[in-house]
Amino acid sequence: MSENRKPLLGIVSKLPSGTALGNAGKTHCPLCLGLFKAPRLLPCLHTVCTTCLEQLEPFSVVDIRGGDSDTSSEGSIFQELKPRSLQSQIGILCPVCDAQVDLPMGGVKALTIDHLAVNDVMLESLRGEGQGLVCDLCSDREVEKRCQTCKANLCHFCCQAHRRQKKTTYHTMVDLKDLKGYSRIGKPILCPVHPAEELRLFCEFCDRPVCRDCVVGEHREHPCDFTSNVIHKHGDSVRELLKGTQPHVEALEEALAQINIMNSALQKRVEAVAADVQTFSEGYIKAIEEHRDKLLKQLEDIRIQKENSLQLQKAQLEQLLADMRTGVEFTEHLLTSGSDLEILITKGVVVERLRKLNKVQYNARPGANDKICFCPQEKAGQCHGYEIYDLHRAREKQTASFTLLCKDAAGEIMGRGGDNIQVAVLPKDKKDSPVRPMVQDNKDGTYYISYTPKEPGVYTVWVCVKEQHVQGSPFTVTVRRKHRPHPGVFHCCTFCSSGGQKTARCACGGTMPGGYLGCGHGHKGHPGRPHWSCCGKFNEKSECTWTGGQSAPRSLLRTVAL
Fold first, then answer.
1. How many CB atoms lie within 10 A of CB 257?
2. Which of 82-96, 212-226, 254-268, 394-408 shows the lowest per-residue confidence on average (mean pLDDT)?
C-alpha cells in the first residue's frame, strides 16, 4: 500500500537548504557528524542520533504560573529550570537551535523516528557500494541482496535461507547494485507495540498509524482505515499549513536581505563620515600649520629687521668711534709732539674736524625694542574656514570693527535682524574715557560693530544680546599707537636720492668720504642695503619709528633717475 502514496512535501524544494523541512534530506548527525544511527525527529524538526540525544544534559521543567493568576499575559509560559530529582517533567535543548524539547514518558527513545533520514542514510550507504550496510536478519554480514517483498536487506547466507523457506520462496530478490537508481529503499516501518507487524492502518481517533493487531486490540472501536485511503485528506491539511508557512519564510528572507542591505549602507556611511572626519582634520591641521608658518615667517622678518637695525647701529657707532679716536689720537700727538709752528699750521684743520665730530648726534643707549609677544586670545579671522589667532591689534585713532553672527538654539543662522544688541568698549585704565561703539543691523542675522579708540592701551569689549553675554564676552583688545608713515624716502644712499648734495643726511648715520654727510649704503665698498632715510628701516612697507630729534633734511632729498 505504501507504494501508492502521493508525496506530501511537493514544494519543499523552495525552502532554503538549512530550514527545518529541508533537514529531512540530510544524512549526517549535527553532533557526531557521522551517518545517522537511529535518528530521532525533535519538535523543532531537527534530526539527531538517539545515542547523541541520550548524552545531552537533561533538566527539569516546572510551570510557575499560578493556576488562578490574572496578572500573567494570556498564553505566556514562565518556566524555571530545577534539578532533575525534584521534577518529573524532563527536557533537553536541541543541539542545533537550542529550542526546548520536552521529553515524553519514555524518554529519548519515545521520540518520533525520522524514517526519511533512515532511508537517506541507506541510499548514502548504497552509493558507497554498500559500505556500512549490514544484514537485517543476522546483523553481522554485509548486505548483498534486497528482498523487495519484505523490504529487507540480506547477506548471502540469509538470502539463501530466505529462499529455502516455503513462505518466502517466491519473494523477489534484487542485487544491491541494481538499487542505486531507487529513491526509497527503506525498511518496512514496524509497529512499536507489535514489532512483527507493519504499520499499514491509521487511527483517526488517535491520529497516528497503527498495525493490524492494534486495530483488534487497543483501537478496537476507533475509526481506522488504510493509510493509502486517508493520505489525501491528511496530506492536503499539511499542504495548507505549508502554504501558510511559506510566505513567512519569504518575508523573513526579505527582512534578512534588508538587514544585509542596511548593514552594507551603514558600513558605507560610516566609511564616508570617517573620510569626512579625516579630510576635516587634515584640513584643520594644514590650516594651522600654514598659519603657524605664516606667524613664524612674520616673527623671522621681525628678527631680521631688528638684527639689521642693531647691525646698522653697530656699524655707525664703530665708524663714529673710529673717527673720534683718529681725531683724539692725532690732536694729542700734535699737542705733545708738534712744534709751535706745526701746531699753528695744523690748527685750522684739527679744529674744524673736532667741531664736526662734537656736533654728531648719536644715541648713547642704542638697541632695538625686544617687546615681541604672541596673543592667542585675539582672533585673526578665517583661515581655510577655521578660526585662528594672530598678532594683530587695534590702533589708536583708527576705526576697528568686527561682525556679530547670531544663531538659534539649533546652530542655524537667524537670517533676520531686530535683536537687542548691546556693546561697550571700556579701557582698563579708568583714567581714560569709554569708547562709543556703533552697531549696524544688517537685517540678515549679522551685526557690524565699529569703534575708534582714542588712546593706546588695553580695552575690554562687552557684547550682549538680550542682556546676555555672548560666548567669550567680555573680550580683551590691545590698542597700539597709530601707524606712523615715513616722512623720508626709501633709498640706497643720500647721494642718489639728493642728486649728489653733500649736505644731505640719512637717519642711518652713515657718511661717505669726500665731505658727504649722508650714507653711501648699497654701493661698492659700503655695507648695507636700501632703507628709509627717516628711520633707517629696511622694509619698504613698514611703520616709521622716528621719534624726533634732528630731522632729516627732507627739503634736500629728492628721487633722481640713476
1. 10
2. 82-96
Neighbour count for residue 281 (Cβ, 10 Å): 10
- Calculate mean pLDDT across residues 55-78: 54
Q: How far apart are CA 275 and CA 269, in angstroms?
A: 10
DSSP 95: T
- Cell numbers linked to 52: 547523541
| Range with the largest mean pLDDT of 78-92, 216-230, 484-498 | 216-230
- As a whole number, the mean pLDDT across the chain is 76
Q: Cα separation of 89 and 64, whole Å? A: 13
Grid cell listed for 134: 549490514
* Nine cell digits for residue 416: 533676520
- In the chain, what are the domain boundaries? 2-63+77-227, 271-359, 397-480, 482-562
Rg of the chain (C-alpha set): 56
If one counts every other C-beta atom within 10 angstroms of the C-beta of residue 54, the result is 14
The candidate with the shortest Cα–Cα distance to 196, out of 217, 218, 211, is 211
In angstroms, what CA-CA distances link 36 with 28, 124, 184, 191?
Answer: 5, 11, 16, 21
14 touches 246 (CB < 8 A):
yes
d(CA 538, CA 522): 12
Reduced to 3 states (helix: H, G, I; strand: E, B; else coil), residue 112 is strand
How far apart are alpha carbons 155 and 368 in whole angstroms?
118
Q: What is the mean pLDDT of residues 98-117?
A: 86
What is the tens place of the pLDDT at every residue in 390-440?
Answer: 334 577 778 888 888 877 666 677 778 888 888 888 888 767 778 888 988
Amino acid at the residue 78: F
The grid coordinates of residue 367 equal 638697541
pLDDT of residue 362: 77
CA distance linking residue 529 with residue 519, whole number of Å: 11
Higher pLDDT, 200 or 3: 200
Superfamily of domain 397-480: Immunoglobulins (2.60.40.10)
Q: At 271, is the pLDDT very low, low, confident or very high (cuts 50, 70, 90)?
A: very high
- Contact between 389 and 378 under an 8 Å Cβ cutoff? The reply is yes
pLDDT at 538: 81
- β-partners of residue 112 are 41
**Distance, CA of 222 to CA of 201 (rounded, Å):** 12
3-state DSSP assignment of residue 140: coil
CA atoms within 13 A on the CB side of 84: 8
Closest CA to 505 of 551, 539, 548: 551
| Angstrom distance (rounded) from CA 367 to CA 359 | 21
Is the distance from CB of 201 to CB of 212 less than 8 angstroms? yes
Q: What would the pLDDT profile of 436-474 be if each residue is shown by its tens digit?
A: 889 888 888 788 888 888 888 888 888 888 777 777 777
Which residues are registered as beta bridge partners of 516? 512
Rounded Cα–Cα distance for residues 346 and 331 (Å)? 10
What is this structure's pTM?
0.39
